[in-house]
Amino acid sequence: MNGTVDPMVAQADSEFLMHTYGRLPVEFVSGRGATLTDSRGQNYLDFLGGIGAVSLGHCHPAIVAALQNQAAKLWQVGNYYYVQNRNELACDVAELLSYTTDAEGHVTGSTGSAWKVFFANSGAEANEGAIKIARKWGEKTLGGATGIITAQRSFHGRTLATLSATGQAAFHRTFLPMPAGFDAVPLNDLGALRQMIEHPTKLLGAGPCAVMLECVQGEGGVWPATTEYLQGVQELCRQHGLMLIVDEVQTGFYRCGAPFCYQLAGIEPDIVSMAKGIGGGFPMGAVAGRGEAGELLQPGDHGSTFGGNALASAVGRATVETLVNDDIGEHVIQVGQHLAEGLERLPHVVEVRGHGLLRGAQLDSPVASEAVDLGLERGLVLNHIGDSILRFLPPLVVSQKQVDQMLQTLEEILVDLAG
Ligand SMILES: *Cc1c(COP(=O)(O)O)cnc(C)c1O
Fold first, then answer.
1. Cα first-last separation, the chain
2. Residue 2: pLDDT band by 50, 70, 90 thresholds?
3. For residues 393 and 275, what is the distance between their CA atoms, to the nearest angstrom?
4. What is the pLDDT of residue 100?
5. Per-residue pLDDT tens for 303-339?
6. What would you measure as the largest C-alpha separation in the chain, in angstroms?
7. Which of 333, 325, 409 is nearest to 371 (CA)?
8. 91 CA to centre of ligand 1 in angstroms
9. Contact, 10 vs 370, CB < 8 A?
10. Ligand 1 mean position to 275 CA, how many Å?
11. What integer pLDDT is reported at residue 418 of this predicted model?
């Protein structure tokens, strides 16, 4: 049977690791594309993709080669020195950020905007950088208004400031006091945002300097912001001189079909954070600023020992260039549509949300976690959020055939569970 783990492995995990995660009973030992193999030699179709990080699939030859090649040359010298791969990766990222797309994600052109990039090691760290840029903006141009308006049900990371930005009180409770200067409004309610900007709450201190949001709330349950909302947010930010920060940690690098999800709505933020997909599973993050937002941080303002080191940059560069050269965006648009249509036809699925290969299926009964357990037994790596949402984040190279295989097994599971 799939989904059983050596008791010694489970015992050592429990003895030596902090219990920050509940684990599913499986130990994966290898992977290729969208498939994983466990310690007993059983194969699985991976629809979680290392929580959205394994953009090119497991062990894609292009990034394995880039890693092996760089690993034998140079890893880390510190950010006092030039690194060619870091320049190239920043250039690639800046180009992707400037693209325009249609509402499906097909690239239509470029805004010609100038973006500058800072490399970090994770999504939370990328968001910390975004917050610091916005606060410097508030200090410089808004008379010290440095509050940041975020969205309820958002997720921005596990460091204290990004937790404070995360609009889910349950995550805060144990770790009070939260860093000050954040308050959250409901997503897709432009009136509530206007009210918060024009009459800021005490939580925002001297007033707002930025609005920070995800175009699709991934961790919150796959809740997309509407195009009208995103355009309205951009308009409000411009009217009031606020920075618009878009957290693309989960949605970036073609996850939603377009290079970045904001492009689907035809907007252009001031600050973009990214991480998950950039290194194909190698830990890396980045924050980018457009125009003046890219010039605000100066020597002494920010840093990272490892951020953008030679090894990470080599892998990131190979990942991003392969995503572009293999036209992964077009593949994501097609297969993502196929996935959404297939999910809509499943029994007990009442709503399918999201874009591209970030999809959420809302179930009519609270069996999502049982579905994940049964999936593992039947060779599927699935993910649930809460009781009744399944989230799908497969490697972007997943094939239509693999999607069909997953859908067939999931259908059997849902019938077994919910009748
Ligand atoms: C995963 C995620 C983060 C946190 O990223 P880490 O690399 O875990 O720090 C932040 N924002 C969003 C939208 C995410 O999905």
1. 23
2. low
3. 14
4. 98
5. 999 999 999 999 999 999 999 999 999 999 999 999 9
6. 63
7. 409
8. 23
9. no
10. 7
11. 82
Encoding tokens for residue 281?
A: 């599973």
DSSP state of 98: T
Mutate to test the pocket of ligand 1, among 166, 246, 250, 282 (most ligand atoms within 8 A of CB): 250
Note the pLDDT tens digit of each residue in 176-223: 999 999 999 999 999 999 999 999 999 999 999 999 999 999 999 999
Query: What's the confidence (pLDDT) of residue 295?
Result: 98
Cβ within 8 Å of residue 341, ≥6 positions away? none
Q: Is 318 in the pocket of ligand 1 (CB under 6 A)?
A: no
List of E strands, 76-126: 99-101, 107-110, 115-120
> Ligand 1 center to residue 99 CA distance, Å?
23
Q: How far apart are CA 39 and CA 336, in angstroms?
A: 30
CA of 342 relative to ligand 1 center, distance in Å: 28
Tell me which residue of 228, 232, 277 sits closest to 257, measured CA to CA: 277
**Interacting residues of 75 by C-beta distance below 8 A, sequence separation 6+:** 309, 310, 311
Residue with tokens 């000050």, as numbered in its chain:
180
Measured torsion, CA atoms of residues 13, 15, 16, 18, in degrees rounded to the nearest 10: 80
**Which residue's alpha carbon is at the smallest distance from atom 10 of ligand 1?**
156
- pLDDT for the residue numbered 402: 98
- Is the CB–ligand 1 distance for residue 332 below 6 Å? no
Residue 1 has pLDDT above 80, yes or no: no
Exposure string (b/e) for 353-372, b if CB count within 10 Å is 16 or more?
bbbbbbbbbbbeeebbebbb
Instruction: Tell me if 214 CB under 6 Å of ligand 1.
Output: yes
Cis peptide before 186 (omega within 30 of 0): no
Lowest-confidence region among 54-58, 250-254, 390-394, 415-419: 415-419
